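In this section we walk through a basic example: taking a raw amino acid sequence and producing a predicted 3D structure, encoded as discrete structure tokens. The instruction is simple. Fold the sequence below.
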Amino acid sequence: MVDDELWALIEPLLPPWPERSPGPRPVPDRLCLQGILYVLHNDIAWQLLPLELGFGSGQTCWRRLERWQKAGVFDALHRILLAELNAAGELDWSRACVDGSHIRAKKGGADTGPSPVDRRKTGSKHHLICDGRGTPLKVITTAANVNDVTQTLALVDGIPPVAGRPGRPRRRPEALLGDKGYDSNPNREELRKRRILPVISRKGTPNIHGMGKLRYVVEQTFALLHQFKRLAVRWERRTELHDAFLSLACGLICWRRLKKHRP
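The resulting token sequence is shown next.
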């Protein structure tokens, strides 16, 4: 599940183990990563992770996920792969798109709330910003009843500095596309201060002509994210662990695109 090229990028990011740690020797990191990926793809309970697969116990893999999240491993991997795509000319900075998507939160926890689209059942919401080709740049998790417009600037400012090209790392698209859920004059002004052109439909007026064709990429990106079954339904009570899965999935999407476009 983890090919050698991808592992070569991930391994240097992992926090080292103490040379003399008490107890038995830890399960190798690469095997634990495969266990984490198995849960991400298949959405099984940690305690049901099959031992015969050789990835270690579900508890071991869960602890490794927590350890790596605290060390910033998954965010760092995402940044590295964005830089690789940028160097290959595969990021479209001419525009970025924002949107939100509801998911059910089975166990509740932080950043959950009554879903306005699911009979007020407990849920969360993924807020996504992607480039013009649908590459995920940043995802934020909030309660399901948080309005999209409140996360506009957080998404824009949350884009990591992306290297890979001569000059300073890039963090800003030229334009930001959003539907009427992002209609806000104060946000438009803030975007202009950041030298970003707001292309956002206004409530009570017809949609901007051609907006749908340009924004379809963000819907495709959500489809890619939620193909990882662990992200389609939230089981983690702790937001940071759910976000660890999100960052890992974003990195995997970038990795697939990078491999596709490599000669």
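Looking at the output, two observations stand out. Residues 4-14+25-70 form one domain. The longest helix spans residues 239-261. In the next section we compare this with other chains.
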